[in-house]
Amino acid sequence: MIMSQERYLQIKKEHQVRKFVGRFLFILLAILDVLLVSSHSNYAPLITVAMVTIVPFNHFLLGPLRRQKKAIEKEHPEWKILSTKGVKVPSAEANKRTFAGIGILM
Fold first, then answer.
1. Taking the model in full, what pTM does it have?
2. Span 92-104, mean pLDDT?
């Protein structure tokens, strides 16, 4: 698999961002769920369902990037230490993340 270093850095950055967004949403929804359960709210099951939807979104959005990143790192282990600072992610990839985040919150 021939891959440019720039494309690898884009994949690495998008993987980092998606992982952060997934964890952030899960933690945010978990806190909200605890607050709703403690206040005996009827909306607690909805938040729990939203938390559960994060798992498939992460599987389908984060999984392919993770596998691609690992395959490239296996080929070019020296690229692991490269920084993603200043790397721009293509808008098509960023849109996938945005739509998934909106879908989880709805």
1. 0.75
2. 65
Which has the closest alpha carbon to 104: 36, 37, 21? 21
Distance CA 18, CA 6 (A): 18
List pLDDT tens digits, range 18-56.
889 888 988 988 898 888 888 888 888 888 888 888 888
Nearest to 52 by CA among 21, 30, 19, 24: 30
Residues 6+ apart with CB under 8 A from 72: 1, 3, 8, 11, 79
Residue 83 lies in a domain: no
C-alpha to C-alpha distance for 47 and 53, rounded to whole angstroms? 10
Q: Is residue 96 part of a domain?
A: yes
Q: Is residue 71 part of a domain?
A: yes
Total domain count, the chain: 1
